[in-house]
Design a protein that fits this description.
Strand 6 (about 60-65) and strand 7 (about 70-75) form a beta hairpin. The radius of gyration is 27 Å and the shape is globular. It has 2 domains: about 5-235, Glycoside hydrolase, family 65, N-terminal domain (Beta-galactosidase, Chain A, domain 5, Distorted Sandwich); about 240-645, Glycosyltransferase, CATH 1.50.10. It is of the alpha+beta class. The chain starts with a helix and ends with a strand. An 8-stranded antiparallel beta sheet has the order 6-7-8-9-16-13-12-11. The chain has a 4-stranded antiparallel beta sheet with strand order 1-2-3-4. This is Amylo-alpha-1,6-glucosidase. It holds the Pfam family MGH1-like_GH.
């Protein structure tokens, strides 16, 4: 096989719409591994393979359009034998365009062939399809004791399609229906062959649709065009939400626009509002932690995402105690799944609450949303959920000897580690030993501190003097306890966790960077942490490692013990900038941007933590999700950290403190920044050694801008 063909087989291209997503190789084929058409955590299409006769076409190029709506693969034929009275087709005479998109949970595909030869010939187009209805967790490698029954395919459309069915152990019958715009010349099981007469200069198109329900109108050019126009219009509408970033750097703009397009792709419109699904392929579903952090990353530009996330999570807050689900009244959901395995409770993830940090992050986001928007009416609707969430935090903290927010899974089926670094080996002592539970993570105490501060601020907004004093007091006690228990004086850094015996896991990880984001440390200790994070054992030149090199269990190829996660780097940068070290934030933004350039302008979920080598690209992590919501949101948090922009919706003001521009960028404009009913453009421009800011109001009530340079 030629190198281009090999590369195409191992590259992936993704599309998403609502609760459906498609992962295919460079040819557009679905045929192995984790590729497939999925809906509700079930694979509805496990094979979708195109051939010309017995051969795979030669790939010219393949890409998803910049707006993430269409996949386009341009191919040409290899040598084809003569068929009947027609001549053979020499290599490179047929141009084959494979164009597809998802709309309304349905796959639409158009295959167009054009003959660039001088005589007519027949092209034997063959489509092979199959559906295995495997649960997403099976596709990821989970082995089940038993499965349901694949039913016999239904040829209700004759040579124009087939319907696959599967009766699950949950008694649900799941279907996958494939339909063609014209009848196949020959059908062999689930292989459809079309003999297309190609006249020179005249194209021939075959339209295909795949959905979870059979019946309805057959595919046609008109249906394809209509659905394509609606799909593009809907994605364009999502991409226009919130303020927009433009700069003097075309490549920097491409990064920002790609990140914005990825967020539009991953965001589903739920009854409660827009909600960013975590990532494709493994996490295309609502996650709590990921969505809250994505909302925090984009809050300054688009508060609508935060509102949608808060509404959804409040509606799915735990109401009961369950060790299997790791739930307790007031806890906020970690993830939800709709596949067969979750429905049968083979796994707890149907609606799972095993995240210790999601609940304080939820409260943090509510406080940040109120400050950003001044939307007291929406906060009032959330107030019962906020009280319940804070009540859970308080109960767990009161049961801990040091007053910390800790975790221990209820059953062996749950997650053993329940912070954002949730792999089994991500928390340990300095000698590599795994700690006894329950475990108190350092960044989670920062989240709890910030949650108590948020509740105090919201109580003040509601004129609840008693609540304000109670929560402010809890925040102060948490701050004092963290400083007393987690600080390692000899290392000038915070340890990663405290174990069930009260012993500190004296490990240098990126987690304390989140503590800075929450504003817990004093200025002296924050400066020490910021300085350590920018040293070579953390900062690789591409971003911050999750674990400093030289620590026990350090491995730059691991999931959490030395890899680089862009969202983690962004949170650390925001924390560093919070304490005035804005030049370090500029350096981290530059590192992330230069990494993105090597990943086709799209930051992956994570990549390997090897030190940057001149002239060499960053090293990919082989099974990282791409796109991933909080990786797509990271550039916006990094930019905010550099510009020093804070929007105060309660007072109707915009604050800008000591702005810095990214290296090589002389101008950044923020278009249509919303503050109440007003819209403004903010222009940041390099003027000598300083950065100046200019305001363009778009309504009569231009909000005041407070600039501190």
């Amino acid at each position: 096989m030629d190198p281009a063909a090999t590369a195409a087989l191992y590259s992936t291209h993704v599309l998403k719409d609502g609760d459906s997503f498609l992962v295919a190789n460079g040819y557009g084929d679905v045929e192995e591994g984790s590729t497939g058409l999925f809906r509700d955590d079930t694979r509805l299409l496990s094979m979708f393979r195109l051939r010309l006769g017995e051969t795979q076409p030669a790939l010219l190029s393949a890409a998803v359009t910049a707006d993430n709506v269409f996949f386009l693969a341009h191919m040409t034929n290899r040598q084809l034998p003569p068929l009947g009275e027609t001549a053979a087709a020499a290599h490179g005479l047929i141009h084959l365009l494979r164009a597809r998109f998802l709309f309304e949970e349905r796959l639409f595909e158009r295959i167009t062939l054009m003959n660039y030869g001088t005589s007519a010939f027949v092209a034997p187009l063959r489509i092979e399809v199959a559906a295995d209805f495997r649960d997403m967790f099976e596709v990821r490698g989970q082995v089940r004791a038993a499965r349901g029954k694949l039913l016999d395919p239904e040829a209700s459309l004759g040579p124009r399609g087939v319907t696959f069915s599967y009766e699950g152990l949950d008694k649900l019958v799941r279907k996958s229906a494939i339909a063609f715009s014209q009848p196949a010349t020959h059908v062999d099981g689930a292989t459809f062959e079309f003999l297309l007469q190609l006249v020179p200069g005249v194209d021939q198109s075959l339209f295909i649709e795949v959905g979870s329900e059979p019946g309805g109108p057959l595919p046609s050019r008109e249906r394809h065009r209509d659905a394509a126009a609606k799909a593009r219009k809907r994605m364009r509408s999502r991409g226009r939400r919130g303020a927009r970033v433009r700069s003097s750097g075309p490549l920097f703009d491409a990064w920002m626009q790609r990140s914005r397009a990825d967020l539009a792709l991953l965001t589903s419109e739920l009854e409660t509002g827009p909600y960013p699904y975590a990532g494709i392929p493994w996490f295309s579903t609502p996650f709590g932690r990921d969505a809250v952090i994505t909302a925090l990353q984009t809050l300054w530009l688009d508060p609508g995402i935060a509102r949608g996330v808060l509404g959804f999570l409040a509606a799915h807050q735990a109401q009961e105690e369950s060790s299997f689900l790791d739930s307790a009244p007031g806890k906020i959901m970690h993830e939800t799944r709709r596949g067969e395995m979750s429905a049968l409770r083979e796994l707890p993830f149907g609606r799972y609450y095993g995240g210790v940090d999601t609940t304080p992050l939820f409260v943090m986001l509510a406080g940040a949303y109120a400050r950003r928007t001044g939307d007291a009416a929406f906060v009032d609707t959330l107030w019962p959920a906020l009280l319940a969430a804070t009540g859970w935090i308080e109960r767990v903290c009161d049961a801990n000897r040091d007053g910390f927010l800790d975790y221990a899974r209820g059953e062996s089926t749950g997650l053993s580690n329940q912070g954002w670094k949730d792999s089994e080996d991500s928390v340990f002592h300095a000698d590599g030993r795994f700690p006894k539970g329950p475990i108190s993570l350092v960044e989670v105490q920062g989240y709890a501190y910030a949650a108590f501060r948020a509740m105090a601020e919201l109580a003040e907004l509601r004129r609840d003097e008693t609540g304000m004093q109670v929560w402010a007091g809890r925040a102060a006690r948490m701050q004092a306890a963290v400083e007393a228990k987690f600080w390692m004086e000899d290392q000038g850094f915070y340890g990663i966790a405290v174990d069930g015996d009260g012993a500190l896991c004296a490990v240098r990880s990126s987690n304390p960077g989140h503590l800075l984001y929450c504003g817990l440390p004093n200025a002296t200790r924050a400066a020490a942490v910021a300085g350590r994070l920018m040293e070579h054992d953390f900062h690789t030149g591409w971003g911050l490692r999750t674990l400093a090199s030289g620590q026990a269990r350090y491995n730059p190829m691991s999931y959490h013990n030395g890899s680089i996660w862009p969202h983690d780097t962004a949170l650390c940068a925001a924390g560093i900038a919070r304490y005035g070290h804005r030049d370090a934030a500029v350096q981290l933004l530059r590192s992330a941007f230069e990494a993105a350039v090597n990943f086709d302008m799209r930051l992956p979920e994570l990549f390997c933590g090897f030190r940057r080598v001149q002239g060499a690209p960053p090293i990919a992590y082989p099974v990282a999700c791409m796109p991933q919501a909080w990786a797509a949101g990271a550039p916006f948090m990094l930019l905010q950290a550099c510009l020093g922009v804070e929007i105060d919706g309660l007072r109707g003001e915009i604050h800008v403190e000591r702005p810095r521009l990214p290296d090589g960028i002389d101008e950044v404009r923020l278009h249509d920044v919303a503050l109440g009913g007003d819209r403004v453009d903010l222009l940041f421009r390099r003027v000598g050694e300083r950065v100046g800011m200019f305001v363009d109001g778009k309504s009569a009530g231009t909000p005041p801008v407070r600039l501190r340079s």
